[in-house]
Specification:
Blueprint: E1 2-3, H1 4-10, H2 16-24, E2 28-30, E3 33-34, E4 41-42, E5 48-50, E6 53-54, E7 62-67, E8 96-97, E9 105-112, H3 115-122, E10 130-136, H4 142-150, E11 153-154, E12 157-158, E13 163-170, E14 175-182, H5 189-196, E15 201-209, E16 212-213, E17 222-224, H6 227-239
Parallel strand pairs: 9-15
Antiparallel strand pairs: 1-4, 2-3, 2-5, 5-6, 7-9, 7-17, 8-9, 10-14, 10-15, 11-12, 13-14, 15-16
Organism: Bacillus aerolatus
Protein name: Pseudouridine synthase
GO biological process, one term: enzyme-directed rRNA pseudouridine synthesis
Length: 243
């Protein structure tokens, strides 16, 4: 369900403010009836008309994308850098990333044109697990990793408990691969968490988002999520469980 004025604006028929004016003036119909209530929400199945002209609504689409490093998680960039939507030249819908991955971070990113779905997955009260693999310039001892698992104080507050596991350690090169799972989405959070225990992240990749993974994809490739996967993500966000 989306607000009526938002639906009109997304269809490109008027700005959000102009759409509100049209509704107030009685120029908008929903399922054949004039509507003047600004707060009204409409479903995908509802028929909306503005001045007698049907509103053509975009089909909701959902993509899983393997973001390469050196790409902005945005639909445009004022510095003319490459953005994630550059990889979707043949997608007609106006898609945008759900959350973000840092410029120097690669991995799994979901893109959609469904604002309600995006908010569901990114709102702080919905705890969606995100799993990263970090390559560090050193080998942290277990008690330091435990600090991350318990939650560590950053400049913007203490982090929620995390799941942390050492995948490998190269004593000769003095570097380690650490897997960390968090459900928050603060700016550069994983990098800052490791910095807080004295380690620089040399390379960072998001391997999983909830139950989704990158199997079968190379950097820069994407696939459309199945209807079942979209339903599972909604259920997980709303209930905290896939059941």
């Amino acid at each position: 369900m989306e607000r009526l004025q938002k639906v009109i604006a997304q269809a490109g028929m008027a700005s959000r403010r102009k759409a509100e004016q049209l509704i107030s003036e009685g120029k908008v119909k929903v399922n054949g009836k004039v509507v003047t209530e600004l707060g009204m929400k409409v479903a995908a199945s509802d028929k909306v008309e503005v001045g007698g002209i049907p509103v053509e609504r975009e089909r909701k689409v959902y993509y899983l994308f393997y973001k390469p490093r050196g790409v902005i998680s945005a639909v445009s960039d004022d510095k003319n850098r490459k953005v994630v939507t550059d990889y979707f030249p043949f997608v007609e819908q106006r898609i945008f990333p759900v959350g973000r991955l840092d410029y120097d971070t690669s991995g799994l990113l979901v893109l959609t044109n469904d604002g309600e779905f995006s908010n569901l997955l990114t709102h702080p009260r919905y705890q969606i697990d995100k799993t990263y693999v970090a390559r560090l310039n050193g080998i942290p001892q277990r008690h330091l990793l435990k600090r991350l698992a318990d939650g560590i104080q950053l400049e913007d507050g203490k982090t929620a408990p995390a799941k942390v596991k050492e995948l490998s350690a190269d004593k000769r090169k003095q570097r380690a691969l650490i897997e960390i799972t968090i459900h928050e989405g603060r700016n550069r959070q994983v990098r800052r968490m490791f910095e807080a225990i004295g380690f620089e992240v040399q390379k960072l990749k998001r391997e999983r988002y909830a139950f989704l993974n990158l199997n079968g994809l190379n950097a820069g490739e994407f696939r459309e999520l199945t209807a079942h996967e979209v339903k599972q993500l909604r259920t997980l966000a709303e209930t905290g469980s896939l059941r």
